[in-house]
Amino acid sequence: MSPDISPEVAREVSPRAVETLTSRGLRTRDAVLHAARVVFAQSGYAESRIADISRAAGVAHGTFYTYFSSKEEVLHAVMSKLQREMASERPADTAPLAPAKGIEAAHRHYLRKYRTNAALLATLEQVATLSEALRTMRREHRRVFVDRTARAIQRWQDAGLADPGLDPTYAASALGNMVDRFAYVWFVIGEEFDEDTAVETLTRLWVQALGLDHEHPPSAHRRRRLPDRTTSTS
Amino acid sequence: MSPDISPEVAREVSPRAVETLTSRGLRTRDAVLHAARVVFAQSGYAESRIADISRAAGVAHGTFYTYFSSKEEVLHAVMSKLQREMASERPADTAPLAPAKGIEAAHRHYLRKYRTNAALLATLEQVATLSEALRTMRREHRRVFVDRTARAIQRWQDAGLADPGLDPTYAASALGNMVDRFAYVWFVIGEEFDEDTAVETLTRLWVQALGLDHEHPPSAHRRRRLPDRTTSTS
Amino acid sequence: MSPDISPEVAREVSPRAVETLTSRGLRTRDAVLHAARVVFAQSGYAESRIADISRAAGVAHGTFYTYFSSKEEVLHAVMSKLQREMASERPADTAPLAPAKGIEAAHRHYLRKYRTNAALLATLEQVATLSEALRTMRREHRRVFVDRTARAIQRWQDAGLADPGLDPTYAASALGNMVDRFAYVWFVIGEEFDEDTAVETLTRLWVQALGLDHEHPPSAHRRRRLPDRTTSTS
Amino acid sequence: MSPDISPEVAREVSPRAVETLTSRGLRTRDAVLHAARVVFAQSGYAESRIADISRAAGVAHGTFYTYFSSKEEVLHAVMSKLQREMASERPADTAPLAPAKGIEAAHRHYLRKYRTNAALLATLEQVATLSEALRTMRREHRRVFVDRTARAIQRWQDAGLADPGLDPTYAASALGNMVDRFAYVWFVIGEEFDEDTAVETLTRLWVQALGLDHEHPPSAHRRRRLPDRTTSTS
DNA sequence: TATGAATGAGCTTTCATTCAT
DNA sequence: TATGAATGAAAGCTCATTCAT
Fold it and tell me: CB under 8 Å to D27, separation ≥6 — which residues?
């Protein structure tokens, strides 16, 4: 595999813990963090210079190190924030839509959010394997997505709406990858697609793959159940 | 900084074209290329040093530059070769299997090939967006895969085996991504999966997504046809 | 090799402009510039190493690049300064000497100044044709000298002291070259001469060549006048 | 001063003495020598690569070393040939012209020859101080010119045509420089001049400087005589 | 003689990080 | 906190020269 930038796990603390910063300090830190995001998006990780980030943040070169102890640390902070943003902010599915409608809405939403952050997500792809810390962050972030989808699949299976023969986790992982990767190929690699056709096709594939388009008699045996969750999240 | 008095004599510095190499030269070039592959797989692109490659190839530092004019150029050569390998070598589907059987075999084959080259494919992911040249190579390589799958889907649609409502290219792209990305998450990011369950799930998702599990009366209208191919490849 | 997704943030690598330097920075810059002068004089351009200059300046290797972006750039700075020095600093010809006396003084002064800077002037000769920038600098520097002499010649012509049949600019260029080159051959190529004889001969040649040694009746027609200068410089 | 490329005096012998070469060998050697001349003229010394010379000569890289043992050695050979060409080939002044006419013809001839070889002469200027060997070659070559002129001046002095107060050698050196440098400034540095005006001015300056434009009674005392030459050349 | 592959010392340049102010 | 000058390890690349064939 790829080498870790630093063998030890990345430090979780900045040179000065965020909590202890004055409000002026917080503002500067934010400026640097935001600048880093812009620069990483624009130039990729390897080609981004601390000097670029400082300049973009409007601070002196040395000021960077007041808030982050290394280039890798800002990277971590930027990517962590990005992944949180990608995971949250999904449209409030307040109304319990029919599965197909909900899936379509989610797909359209995800693709648009991807497009917005495409450049930074491209950088994330570059660095995903650069350190074990990032690889771990990546795995954990995926788990949120996959779990959420897996639980939905299981609910659908329980309700006799989805193919009970599918392993919810494997299916969730596979289908999630499908959409995520489709966006990557489209917005990063530069393949050309049409949004409506894309959303429609992805949705149809999900619906049919999961068997949401016809009934599944409850007699069917399930291959594997998800571990019970006390907090039966959305 | 050279005097620009009269430009007459050509100045060429790039490496000698492969065709003009002596057999000794060819052997050395191969050694360097192979060493680069090993080193890129081991260390990723950014962390690979020309010195590492030369050492691994058992040649002097300067010899590298006899055959490649830069790190980027070997990268290109290595990745080009990798992609050709990934695209070829598919199992001889001599027997016209039932679609599902064929799909399953292809999936299993692909996952195994991916696992074999996982480290280098991880590097490919890192560098995919590093230069337009690589992005283009990437797009073109995907096209081979996608086209092959899209034509298969269309044949199945024509035969009334697959859902005629799907755009073959979009579906091929999406489903291809699904498998490719599943392998990445498994072998590169380090998620843990079981091969049989993986192959089974991926296959079931394909089959159901494409509607290969039930009949499609010929009356159905098709969304978009692929451009006709004279050479109706398998 | 950076992703070209969206170019927004400026990337500047060139050295900080001289005006923006702190006094400490200015001091260091001067040290480097002076060291470069010494090293170039000692070793010529091609044989001078950035490492030599840094060492001579007593700074770290990288510090050189804080102030100059390349060897060529310091060269430019050094030579520009040298030429300014050669052009200025002429002896205050406060007393309006007889032409011959003034010429003799100027020659002696020039030869001595040349001897002092011979090594660096030899380097200037080496690099004069290395870049168009230097060639241009050279041309402009000569113009100062030539113009000054040409105006003197014209004044003498106007006063009936010098041969009116000479083109002032051509004559100034030729006679200036004569002295300059004499110094080069003497101090750089290593021909052996005696100062008094040299000054005497050069002066006599100038005086006679210009016809300063006898009257020129005002009736004589002039070949070409210099463009009028409002500021009739001394 | 500038450093010598190699402390020892350049070897005077090629890897294989020219006399021992077969005619095929001689042809190859000539091709390399000529190619070197072209390349040096085009790119200057520092920017010329042995590879460029070999390619221009149409021989393999290694073949160069069959005939010259180093880059410096070809340089020496090329420049030696150039200086011989510049010194010879002057127009047969069969008819004992009036001094002024002869001088004018010589000047025009020299300027034209300079123009033809300007690029290579520019390179000569670059390298003149690179090694003691070249500096010596330079001095010796100048001596031919200067001596020739000095003897002419002395003859004119003896004949009562030229100012007997001038030291023939100093005057010859200075006046020779004047023309040589004028050509350099014109054809290498890129100052713009008109040929007729240039020839006319240079000639007038010579004539007047030497006092060839009026009589010099034999009573005048001469400053210094040239050492007697048995072979009272042209 | 001719070839062209191989060598490796040597050089320029970059840039994350430190630190005195 | 903020500054920006200073550091120096590290890497890419060049090319004159050697040498086996």
Answer: none
User: Residue C14 — pLDDT band, cuts 50, 70, 90?
Assistant: confident
D142 interface with C at CB cutoff 8 Å: yes
Q: Which residue has the higher pLDDT, C43 or D91?
A: C43
Contact A127 B122 (CB under 8 A): no
Task: Evaluate whether B40 touches B93 at the Cβ level (below 8 Å).
Answer: no
Cα separation, C154 vs B218, in Å, equals 103
Distance separating alpha carbons of residues A26 and A46, to the nearest angstrom: 27
Which nucleotides of chain E does any protein CB come within 7 A of? 1-20
Q: Which of A165, A149, A167, A150 is nearest to A216 (CA)?
A: A165
The per-residue pLDDT for range A72-83, each reduced to its tens digit, is 999 999 999 999
Residue C201 C-alpha from the chain's centroid:
23
Q: What is the arithmetic mean of pLDDT over B164-171?
A: 97
Residues B182 and B179: their CA atoms lie apart, in Å, by: 5
Which residue type sits at B109? H
Q: Are D44 and B9 within 8 A, CB to CB?
A: no
Strand F–CB B193 distance below 7 A: no
pLDDT band at C221 (very low <50, low <70, confident <90, very high): low
The reply to whether B112 Cβ lies less than 7 angstroms from strand F is no
Q: How many CB pairs under 8 A join A and C?
A: 39
| Mean of the per-residue pLDDT values of chain B | 88
Q: Cβ distance C44 to D3 under 8 Å?
A: yes
Give the helix/strand (H/E) hosting B109: helix B99-116
Q: B117 near B84, Cβ under 8 Å?
A: no
SS (H, E, C) chain A: CCCCCCCCCCCCCCCCCHHHCCHHHHHHHHHHHHHHHHHHHHHCCCCCCHHHHHHHHCCCHHHHHHHCCCHHHHHHHHHHHHHHHHHCCCCCCCCCCCHHHHHHHHHHHHHHHHHHCHHHHHHHHHHCCCCHHHHHHHHHHHHHHHHHHHHHHHHHHHCCCCCCCCCHHHHHHHHHHHHHHHHHHHHHHCCCCCHHHHHHHHHHHHHHHCCCCCCCCCCCCCCCCCCCCCCCCC
Residue with tokens 């005589």: D225
Place of tokens 């021909």: C191
Rounded mean pLDDT of B169-179? 98
Cα–Cα dist B184/B176, whole Å: 12
pLDDT number for residue A23: 87
Tokens read off for A16: 């000065």
Higher pLDDT, C47 or D89: C47
Q: Is the pLDDT of residue C224 over 60?
A: no
- Token pair of B129 as six digits: 């967006």
- Secondary-structure percent of chain C, ordered helix, strand, coil, rounded to 5: 65, 0, 35
Are C201 and D170 spatial neighbours (Cβ–Cβ below 8 Å)?
yes
Judge whether residue A2 has pLDDT over 60: no
Whether C119 and D1 lie within 8 Å, measured CB to CB: yes
What number of residues does chain C have?
234
Measured in whole angstroms, how far is the alpha carbon of residue D214 from the centre of its chain? 31
Model pTM score: 0.86
- Residue A32 neighbours by CB under 8 Å, 6+ apart: A53, A54, A57, A59, A63, A64, A67, A68, A74
The Cα angle at residue B161 between residues B157 and B163, in degrees rounded to 5: 60
Which of residues D91 and A164 earns the better pLDDT score? A164
pLDDT of amino acid A12: 39
Residue B75 has a pLDDT of 96
D118 interfacial to chain B (CB closer than 8 Å): yes
Task: Provide the pLDDT for residue A61.
Answer: 96
Q: Coil, strand, or helix at residue B91? A: coil
- Is pLDDT larger for residue C173 or for residue C226? C173
More confident position, C68 or C16: C68
Q: Is A17 exposed, middle or buried (0-12, 13-18, 19+ CB in 10 A)?
A: exposed
pLDDT, greater one: B126 or A231 = B126
